[in-house]
Design goal:
This protein has 281 residues and is an alpha+beta fold. Helix content is 52%, strand content 10%. It contains eleven helices and four strands, in the order H-E-H-E-E-H-E-H-H-H-H-H-H-H-H. The chain has helices at residues 7-14, 43-59, 83-102, 121-137, 152-156, 171-176, 180-204, 219-230, 240-254, 258-265, 269-280, and strands at 25-32, 63-69, 73-80, 114-117. A four-stranded antiparallel beta sheet has the order 2-3-1-4, sandwiched between helices. The relative contact order is 0.11.
């Protein structure tokens, strides 16, 4: 006698199963600010994140091969056996510290975080070059060595300012590049390829201007201007009038886009747009 298949059995047999996150291996992790908002306002924030990376990495036997901290996101190339627990503990600690510092209570990082497993050494190398080239492709600097908040200078500069805050595993990089010149050439080649791809995409979209990563002021420079405008005040403690005044001053000083200002102040885009419309019409 054949047992009758129940509805629940049919659903379980036919429904696609959600694939679980790969927990171990060579993993590229990307952590973004909630709604792509800025999550690193100043150097202290970045130092704190690096310290927590090192501490949590030691707790969960996770090695960091490469990293870059941008204003609203972080890229990590890691070797681990428990990526979810590593990132969960890292973000929980940093979010608690950040909210306490700025008198906030909101979720600061987007969840779930993004992670991809690198199954080949070539793929792994390509991601490391992508991470190191990130500030250049974003228009923040012209060479990877000029950016303080990546693992590049940890590889070749013994007096790097962030060496005391985080450690990286350089064995794979050193196995592929015997000199600094070799990795510089590899990064330059990656950047050239990235620009070519961007130009091709712009051309296919009938873009009227050629590719330029410096078409607007980078967010970290805008944040530096904001600190001067705030003059020691906590931007999250401003009343509405003070907030609008700061937004207007920042726009005049930097020419920042509405979206950049909304990111930095963690405000609604339409609110920022309305403030600037009233003051620039």
């Amino acid at each position: 006698m054949v047992a009758r298949e129940t509805n629940s059995n049919r659903e379980s047999n036919s429904a696609p199963q959600r694939q679980g996150r790969i927990q171990s291996g060579n993993l590229h992790v990307c952590i973004r600010g909630n709604c792509r908002k800025v999550i690193f306002i100043d150097q202290e924030d970045k130092f704190e994140f690096l310290k927590r990376c090192k501490k949590v990495g030691e707790q969960f036997d996770t090695r960091i091969e490469a990293f870059v901290i941008m204003d609203n996101h972080v890229h990590l190339q890691i070797i681990t056996t428990c990526v979810t627990e590593f990132v969960r503990r890292l973000l929980h600690g940093y979010s608690y510290w950040y909210n306490k510092k700025y008198s906030l209570s909101d979720k600061i990082c987007r969840t779930p975080f993004k992670s991809l497993c690198k199954y080949s050494d070539e793929w792994r190398l390509n991601i490391i070059l992508y991470i190191l080239a990130n500030p250049v492709n974003a228009g923040i600097c012209s060479r990877a060595e000029e950016y303080e908040w990546s693992s590049y200078n940890l590889m070749y500069h013994q007096k790097c300012s962030i060496r005391n805050y985080i450690a990286i595993d350089t064995s794979f990089i050193y196995s592929r590049f015997s000199t600094r010149k070799e990795i510089d050439l590899a990064i330059a080649g990656f950047i050239k390829s990235h620009k070519a791809e961007s130009s091709a995409k712009a051309a296919s979209a009938n873009a009227s201007t050629p590719f330029s990563s410096r078409s607007r002021m980078p967010t970290h420079e805008i944040v530096a201007h904001l600190k001067n405008i705030l003059d020691g005040r906590n931007m999250y403690a401003l009343d509405k009038v003070e907030l609008e005044q700061c937004i207007v001053k920042l726009k005049r000083a930097t020419g920042a886009t509405h979206y950049q200002i909304a990111q930095i102040f963690n405000e609604n885009y339409e609110f920022v747009r309305g403030v600037l419309r009233r003051n620039f019409c």
